[in-house]
Amino acid sequence: MTHDRYVLRYAAGSDVGRRRQVNEDSLYASSSLLAVADGIGGQPHGEVASATAVDVLRELDVDLRRIDLTGVDLAATLAGVVKSIDARLTEVASQEPTTEGMGTTLTVLMFDGVEFAAAHVGDSRGYLLREGGLRRLTRDHTLVQALVEDGRVAAEDADSHPRRSLLMKALQTTGSSDPDIWTFKAKPGDRYLLCSDGLSGPVSEATLRDVLAAIREPADVIPELIRLANEGGGPDNITCVVADVVAAPGAAPRPADG
Fold first, then answer.
1. Residue-wise pLDDT tens digits, 97-109
2. Confidence of residue 142 (pLDDT cuts 50, 70, 90)
3. DSSP 8-class letter at 93
4. pLDDT tens digit string along 59-81?
5. Which helix (H) or strand (E) holds 91?
6. Greatest CA separation found in the chain?
7. What is the CATH classification number for the domain harbouring 73?
8. Does residue 28 sit within a domain?
9. 163 Cβ neighbours under 8 A, 6+ residues apart
10. How crowded is residue 159: how many other Cβ atoms within 10 Å of its Cβ?
11. Is residue 197 a part of any domain in this protein?
């Protein structure tokens, strides 16, 4: 069975925000990989941890460009990459003891032209804008999210909870991060947003939806999202990747219905 193939039109950006001195976020964006990593604040060398995660993804992307992704098990590939990041973090910490305990979130999409695989650990987020509606793709691995699911904290109070940033899962030097991994089909017209909590914290999902729906080009969406996060106080580093699924160049037009 043949499938329509698509490509990604994407843009990405990062900003230190208004209250931090160091940007501990890292990002990666290419035709086959999109990722946001947020170094854990309050621990040493968060920027090293997030950059290390992205370094491993960059190495993967070099390999991906050499092969035909048709038939590749994307989910298994991403699971292996996360294990490689765990191992790399452990290796870095063994070489530089001051980095012991460092950690990072990671939200990543891998794309083969037909299907996506996603891997997620931490509280960075992935969103899908489809036909004007915004849906969160990821689950925050935080104490507060667990309390919401247990019915001990109201969902509407989660974003203002004093312990909302306390992570239950992250990529760390201890390894065994246990990410969420899943796959789904690409659909033309879909728009994806990956972001650190420096965006999703101060900017409501309703506002995210409005901006993603209103601005046509991904390259124009990024500065507007960063502006809104800083306008909301810029309490953390702000990092976002926006990608649209579009028909591959030269693809035959789909037959019109009746």
1. 999 989 999 999 9
2. confident
3. H
4. 999 988 888 777 789 999 999 99
5. helix 74-95
6. 67
7. 3.60.40.10
8. yes
9. 143, 144
10. 14
11. no
